[in-house]
Design goal:
This is Major facilitator superfamily (MFS) profile domain-containing protein. By secondary structure, this protein is mostly helical. The protein is 68% helix and 0% strand. The relative contact order is 0.16.
Length: 472
Amino acid sequence: MASTAEQAVDNSENGGAAATGGPQRVRWYRSTFYNMTILGLCNLAAPGIWTAMNSLGAGGAQRPYLVNTANALTFCLMVVSCWVSSALVHYIGIKGALIFGTVGYAPYAAGLYANNRFGNEWLVILGAALCGISAGVFWMAEAAIAIAYPEPWNRGKALGYWLTYRLSGQIIGGAINLGLNADRSEAGKVSYTVFIIFITIQALGPFFGMLLTPPDKVERLDGKKVKLEIEGNPWPEIKRTTKLFFTKNFLLILFFIGQAVFSEAVFFTYLSLWFSVRARALGSFLSGIVAVTGGNLLGAWIDRTSIPLKIRARYAFWVIVTLQGAWWTWATVLVTRYHHTRPTYDWSTPGFGAGFGVFIFLTLGFQLNYLFLYFIVQNLSSDKQEVIRYSAILRGAESAWQAISYGIGSQVIIAEVGGIYLNFGLWAVAIIPAWLVIRKLGTKDHDISETDESETPSEIGQVNVEADTKRG
């Protein structure tokens, strides 16, 4: 029986279309909001805490070079695991893939703990490898779930809500580290106690994943069933995923993906090189809050179905691109100066605000770009199976760019200035190709059906819901 927390009105007697003219009845523990919350908790426990550690700069280490090398290994392996992840869904389902994807994160944190406390290096590399094998699968699974589970009019807000949890990990980690290191105004590594807390949280990831509702049991307000499965032989599925990568639309946004995610290693390395321990902790904390706010505002904008898709896509694109250009200009001027003056800024140091501010804004830019990429993929996908494939190649491409970024960031000159110069160049190169895709969204040249896009809660009663909306 349905609980008292059920939303909206009854189904028609046959469980089909919303004959009453309103939303469908759903049970809270199978609702999209519940499942986005579970997905968010998985995100917090796995990549959220990973981001928290790296947002301290160099994974909390005194120097970024070993950690950047380990992260490059992680992302190299993620390229492979992302690529085959849609085939893995064939065997263990999307829920199983999500759970599998969470298991490698705790060993990564354990490696950083051992290095921080005992100077051990081999466990950092092993932990990074285990993280890479599982994280690629996690990235695909969470992206597919985040795009496919919510109702059409809730997708932007759902994406913002889900990604809030990833940044919540960063905020929590920053707050803990700030409390433990508030008196440390010098450069150095963070307290090892912080990593014990991080390992504990990451170990909870698989248990959060077990609480996810399988796609066929999800109940949406529009009455439509969620299908996220890969049928048939997995080898043809891998070939279909590979073929999708080489489509014109995806290749055109490849550099836009690159300029978006290449920056993570760049601004985390920047923070570790030029700021004190407590300033790094403050940066982790404040940047997360700013990014959460900005991401949710962007999510609300792209959900404004009263505004044509064409307008939402174009306005969001040009605002993000313009702001990103301003921040890279600012960062380029600063690191050129820092390369010669070799500062260590604390919040009590003159000139702290200018250097610290650009880190906050670059973190905000990463979040805005990240969410906007999901919006693009959602509008390029023609069916639910293609959602899985696009999620796999998007996350695979992100991993490849981040492997390059962290890999070259292990070199001193790239860590200090070259990373920011390269990212600025990527930003410039990416604009025109990405615009060729964005300008078609919501126009007659956009060959993906937008029936889903135009639905609103008040219109659900007029939508013909397929027979498979029946619930047992």
